[in-house]
């Protein structure tokens, strides 16, 4: 056993247990012991790991959003210390930069957490699949519950004729292995590209996209898929299945988070407000955008119902706006003028209606 396997052995043991338990469940429902039951066990491994990593993923989304939102302040800080290379100035700039990150609740490290957390699992799965032939032949001991019999079943499992442990660069790679590898690499690269594009283009305001960090992320959006496409030929088929599945999970999870909690001023927020406006319109309401808060109000008042005047005292007691009491008084003045009274009398009645409470029910108002 190499030093690398010694370090990864606890994680390899956990990976083997998850895959074996999932394999037993699929066999129990009627799937063959060798074949899709092992392929689906890799998918279950992805689901279990990604559920565990959901809190880190949410932190990553917030951190990446915050990193781009604070870029204008970072640029101002860099201009402030431009040309100052003495240690005191560099240290002061770093301290002010970390203060900006703390105030925004973000950090450069937090945006890499899910990828860093998945790396040991990725390499552990790589080693488990790589060692399947040795475990199946008895040249190596079992990995947790993965004994020689189960390893032989996993070794004989294929995806469209390509064994799970086969690689594109292996000397005995068949045409099926190379075709399946290329298809999985294309799917892995495409899902990674659209995931990055969804985050940077749809969930960032236009003001946050015009800065060096945003341009760097756009560059990485094209570079990372190319890197994985070049290195993917060295990965076993099972590892490519794992990585493609986790990219699909990331893309769907990110779509859900951005749809429900978009960044202010982004295209995703505009789309969310439009959806809310359409739903409000169907209910006969309107959606008024009041700053950062969307307020839903009735589109039409109740038909045939007259707004009753409210005195200033009652409006204050009931917590109503002052304008409502004044509007009721003005309406009474118009009604008085329409009934034949002089404007002066109507105005006086309106003033009385504002200053005095309306008479209690059952009592007549004293004539002046």
From TrEMBL:
Top-level taxon: Bacteria
Entry's Gene Ontology BP terms: protein insertion into membrane; protein transport
GO MF assignments: membrane insertase activity
Domain Membrane insertase YidC/Oxa/ALB C-terminal span(s) in chain numbering: 38-258
Localization in the cell: Cell membrane; Membrane
Alphabetical list of Pfam families matching this protein: 60KD_IMP
Ranges for region Disordered: 266-368
Keyword Chaperone: yes
Transmembrane segments: 7-29, 35-58, 175-194, 219-243
Topology of this chain in the membrane: Multi-pass membrane protein
UniProt key word Cytoplasm: no
An example Gene Ontology CC term for this record: plasma membrane
CDD domains found in the cross-reference section: 5TM_YidC_Alb3
Record keywords: Cell membrane, Chaperone, Membrane, Protein transport, Transmembrane, Transmembrane helix, Transport
Family the UniProt entry places it in: Belongs to the OXA1/ALB3/YidC family. Type 1 subfamily.
Assembly mode: Interacts with the Sec translocase complex via SecD. Specifically interacts with transmembrane segments of nascent integral membrane proteins during membrane integration.
Job description of the protein: Required for the insertion and/or proper folding and/or complex formation of integral membrane proteins into the membrane. Involved in integration of membrane proteins that insert both dependently and independently of the Sec translocase complex, as well as at least some lipoproteins. Aids folding of multispanning membrane proteins.
Protein name: Membrane protein insertase YidC
Organism of origin: Serinibacter salmoneus
